[in-house]
Amino acid sequence: MAKKRQPPVEKASVQLLVNDVEITVPEGTTLLEAAKEAGTEVPHYCYHPELSSPAQCRLCLVEVEGAPKLVPSCTTTVAEGQVVKTDSESATKMRQGVLEFYLVNHPLDCPICDQSGECDLQDFVFSEGRKHGRSKAAKRVIGRDDFGGDILFYGDRCVMCTRCVRFMEEMEQKPILTVVERGNRAVIDTFFEQGLEEAEWAGNVVDICPVGALVSKDFLYKARAWDLEHTPSICPNCSMGCNIEIHTRDNLVQRFKPRKNIEVNGSWICDYGRGGYEWLNQGGRIEKPTMKDTHEPGNGTQEPFGWEDLLRGLGARLKESAESVDVIASPVSSNEDLGAVLGLLKALGGGKILYRCPTSAEEVKLPGKEGLRRTNQLAPNVDGLKILGAVNVGDGSGAGGLEDIGASNSTVLVLGDRLEDQKDGFAENAGLLVYLGSHASQALSQADYILPITTYVEQEGTFVSSGGRVQRFSKGLEGPHAARPAWSILNELTNIISGSSDGDNVEEAFQKLSRISDAFTGLSYEDIGPEGVQLDAVAKKD
Amino acid sequence: MPISTKIMERPEAVETSYLRAALKGMKITLKHMLNPKKVTQQYPEVETRLHPRWRGTHRMEVHADGRPKCVACGLCPTVCPANCIRLVGGEDDQGNRYPVVYEIDEFRCIFCGMCQEVCPVEAIHVGQDFENAEYTRERFVYDLDRLMNQDHPTTLLWDPADPLSE
């Protein structure tokens, strides 16, 4: 039965048997990670791959042949020829016992608990626990505590895994949370009057809490976990490009959650990024493409138009009027949008792209993860704009800088920027003012053409972030019926003007970039996996 | 004439006359007229008794202080096969989870009673009620107030003396 010892396949790799599956893993891997490799999830609470392991939840104990008793798989490292059994009778019985102890004081208020549906205690007890508890003692009641910031603490639900304590100590390195008292009375608490409002990354403790002890005030009672649709995306709130999952319900964004990407953000996102989703749910959308009625000058009425006629008309006007086009792009525009703008400018004979970006004075670093920070550029595609030759104007709040725009007979194209700092009647004297935007803009209400575009969550595409990493985001919401991605509108315009016939899909829109910028050469849309590609790495490969 | 046509002989007039059947019917009518045992229910003058497991329009149970018992856990909209329950949860002034919006579209409802079965706090019930006439379709979407103000008896989904129907 015992496997014959074999010489190591290569130095620093270890062969072992987990649940009769033979695997080879690097030396120093924990049994828990090795089991994951072999396709077995060992239940655990206190272990988190990016934090230290205190081995205190006692749930990940597994049987190792030859060991006198069960060993914690989260701290035990693999050894050559080990035979590990995670589902042996003794391990299963032990887990059942441990889970029963967890439920002695757990309130079982799943119906009103926000974690319900994504709760590790619920899952493990459902799959392996006893059907009925045997404890007759009254449950300990602690109640609810406000930890400050966005965090609420339900003490009764806590399983004392201390992941939150270790996150604050090791990652954020502001030890605000701690374990107070011992044994049965142990409880997580903040130090005296100190609270999590001082922390900048505290939202992550809600994500790593395996039960509903730490919950978000913003998300409190808002939706059930099983009702939410998950869309892989990129955080739009700074140029770090943290990988996130957008959770949506009823065509509204309900919350942002981090998506694991070791290269960029690990398992974490900052509170600033996590909270910045409301603008995606905002009303005041542009519902229909409109054109200023030229037959009644001064009247300013704008008639709803169909896309086809309108773009043909706009194409003709651009062709006859434009010598040079000024484009004001938004730093949330995707690379495909910018590629389509550059394609249009090329067809028209030149122009320049300006953008304004709100900035913050300081970066917000996460000390425990090297390189991860909230950058001081508070928009997702600043790096993409720079690579594609856009010029930054305006001040640090993302305002101003447009004094030279809108001279008489010039052509101005506004892409996504709502120009909230500008007065009504922006660029009145311009020969042609086109606004491609998702939301109605006061300053641009007199634009010659107002074309509805989708927000970045309503289309797919790519951003370049965190210093030259191109990453994809997916479509998670339905936009207004008539709205189209900006790249789709601009590429159709280019087709009309230059008589070309490029396809109307995101792959081809991305492909255009490689024709424009060397940085994108040799990269196709499909090449960018779920975790993105470093642009300079692609260049090196060629 | 096509080969496949078969000529049927008409039956005699005595056989085809409606008179015979009419008399037969009259005979049954007369028999029941003279029968002393009455089976006709005098609805609506006399109220009809419904079976305890009759599943009709819903009713929300309330606490003594008038709050709905519902904790907005979301299980009934999840289990509902007709997708007729709309629920939006929220936090009340005491920090409890409660339904901000709770609507049941009784037109969509198939009265399976699964919402009552799944409810962890015995808040939503199907009821012993069938008089649901309204003048507009909109009135068939029952909101929380209306569900709380329903006063008909709730349905027994199982016999309390024999919950497993053994």
CATH fold descriptor of the largest domain in chain A: Rossmann fold
> What is the helix tally of chain A?
13
Q: In total, how many beta strands of chain A?
A: 26
- Name the strands of the widest sheet of chain A in spatial order: 15-14-23-22-21-16-17-20
Structure overview:
The complex is a heterodimer of chains A (542) and B (166). Chain A is an alpha+beta fold. Chain A has three domains: 13-87, Ubiquitin-like (UB roll); 107-227, Alpha-Beta Plaits; 310-361 and 375-541, Rossmann fold (3-Layer(aba) Sandwich), CATH 3.40.50. In chain A, 23% of the residues lie in helices and 20% in strands. Chain A contains 13 helices and 26 strands. Chain A has an eight-stranded mixed sheet with strand order 15-14-23-22-21-16-17-20, with helices on one face. In chain A, strands 2-1-5-3-4 form a five-stranded mixed sheet, sandwiched between helices. In chain A, strands 6-7-10 form a three-stranded antiparallel sheet. In chain A, a hairpin with a 2-residue loop joins strand 1 (13-18) and strand 2. Chain A is elongated and about 85 Å long. The model of chain A has no long low-confidence stretch (mean pLDDT 88). With 166 residues, chain B is of the alpha+beta class. Chain B has a domain at 56-149: Alpha-Beta Plaits. Chain B is built from five helices and five strands. Chain B has helices at residues 13-16, 18-34, 75-79, 114-118, 144-149, and strands spanning 56-60, 85-91, 97-105, 124-127, 141-142. In chain B, the strands form two sheets. A three-stranded antiparallel sheet of chain B has the order 2-3-5. A two-stranded antiparallel sheet of chain B has the order 1-4. In chain B, a hairpin with a 5-residue loop joins strand 2 and strand 3. The radius of gyration of chain B is 27 Å and the shape is elongated. The termini of chain B are far apart. The A-B interface holds A 110-112, 116, 144, 220-224, 226-227 and B 71-75, 78, 89-91, 95-97, 120-121.
